[in-house]
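To the team - guanosine-5'-diphosphate-alpha-D-mannose complex, inputs and output below.
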Amino acid sequence: MSENDKPIRRALITGITGQDGSYLADFLLARGYQVHGLIRRSSSFNTGRLEHIYQDPHETDPRLRLHYGDLTDGAGLREIITRVQPDEVYNLGAQSHVRVSFDQPVYTTQVDAVGAIRLLEALRDTGLPARFYQASSSEMFGKVAQTPQRETTPFHPRSPYGCAKLYAYWQTINYRESYGMFACNGILFNHESPRRGETFVTRKITRAATRIAEGLQDTLYLGNLDARRDWGFAGDFVEAMWLMLQQDEPDDYVVATGQSHSVREFLDAAFGRVGLNWQDHVRVDRRYYRPAEVDLLLGDAAKARRKLGWRPRVTFDDLVNMMVDHDWALAREERVVRQARENRP
Ligand code: NAP
Ligand code: GDD
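Output:
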């Protein structure tokens, strides 16, 4: 069979409108997949991260197809899976903000924990041999029992989000062991990008540093500056998701850079890039503290390196610079628009 005769592979991504979903869609489309994504009905546009690839769903044969659905609606998930007949399912949809999960613990559980089992059940019901990826998280290590954290490190989640993710993690293993499903957990450490949500600490910092540099704001309010994270680039990490589903056997993998930095170090790098001293602009606001904190995350991705051949390409400094440069361009545009408005007679 020639390359052209090969059947087109179909992937279904929940959370396609999020940071990772959009990078994964780019990655899969570049590999010739037909990509289907679950999107939530929203009163305003929520497809901004897909704009560069999004085509009108009414056009014939778009490579990207979006379906309205929600992880809280099991019947809808079953219907979409039956219609799409995916070869691979990536469950990236989640209420993904740890601080918010303390305010909305039940909703977070409904989406992140029960949502995963709704999807697994829908898949099992249809009997499709689709491969399944679960977006598990280093937040499950929580109050860490060991550093660096690897696949064998005991879990101790410290948030409703971490607990919900741990439930989904175990159900993924349970469906693999009980029903022979090809189901994998990627235990991903923090990964960021210019497409990162604006309320996560890295993007909050790069937006503020650049807006301060352009005279658009003066102060940045943050919480715990001592927390340490293993920050990588989202574009590198989605490749690991795909690689997990290309193996002969399903398994679980830690995906991380193996380097940890504090929030302070991130501030140094981001404000340094725009020529400012963060100490002149940052104020600590206890509203951004969490009832329980995860102090230190540092991953050991030796298994992913050995078995998947995966390694991160973007360094910490490259990541910060990439995010700052992107947000700086946005801040400059904002300043120009604001000045034009102010100068209008
Ligand atoms: P994100 O930017 O917050 O995206 C979350 C996605 O989930 C969005 O598309 C969102 O849709 C969707 N979603 C939220 N609630 C939903 C629901 N009820 N039904 C269906 N979809 C829903 O998150 P991310 O950074 O891309 O992360 C992707 C996944 O990896 C998440 O599961 C996250 O928990 C996990 N993870 C992330 C990291 C990280 O550092 N980024 C690390 C480990 C694990 P809307 O656009 O409509 O809000
Ligand atoms: N968001 C936020 N906002 N975090 C702050 C702030 C602030 O103003 N100030 C300090 N921090 C600290 C948090 O207390 C935390 O220790 C650290 O910065 C990182 O916070 P986030 O960027 O919100 O990420 P996270 O580590 O809590 O969660 C992210 O990574 C997980 C993987 O470990 C999310 O992407 C999760 O979905 C993901 O599973």
